[in-house]
Amino acid sequence: QVQLVESGGGSVQAGGSLRLSCAVYGYMHMRNCMGWFRQAPGKEREGVAVIDSDGRTSYADSVKGRFTISQDNANTHLYLQMNSLKPEDTAMYYCAADRDQYCSRGIEHDFPYRGTGTQVTVSS
């Protein structure tokens, strides 16, 4: 089975930056569709960013130009660089993965694997 472990969350002031990391364990022999989503208390889950096996990326409009998704060449880590953070970015952030190579629904892709999350809190 695939196991995903997030790290890098924390508390920052508005305008600050954080870099989330996701360690991937288990059988993932090639680059696949992977992504990040977030959920704030009382709000719907929101897809944040995805990356497919060709390195193509998609972002939610709310984070375009501020967040960057990337992965290492060994496909053992997924990252989310978050700059110019805003209070509305406050949420639990989850790493997600699929064995499919492509993210058929973009940031709304239905991932079968997800981590336990890392909290991001942005104060004004």
Portion in helices: under 10%
The dominant shape is globular
Arithmetic mean pLDDT:
94
What fraction of residues sit in β-strands?
A: over 45%
Radius of gyration: 13 Å
Which residues sit in consecutive blocks of at least 5 with pLDDT less than 50? none
The main pleated sheet reads as: 7 strands, mixed
Q: Tell me the span between the first and last alpha carbons.
A: 40 Å
Succession of helices and strands: EEEEEEEEEEE
Summing up helix and strand content along with how strands pair, one would put the structural category as: mainly beta
Number of strands: 11
Distinct helical segment count: 0
Describe this structure in words.
The structure is a single chain. The protein has 124 residues and is an all-beta fold. It has no helices and eleven strands. Strands 2, 4, 5, 6, 9, 10 and 11 form a seven-stranded mixed β-sheet that branches. The chain has a four-stranded antiparallel β-sheet with strand order 1-3-8-7, with no helix packed on it. β4 and β5 form a beta hairpin. The radius of gyration is 13 Å and the shape is globular. The N and C termini lie far apart (40 Å). The mean pLDDT is 94.
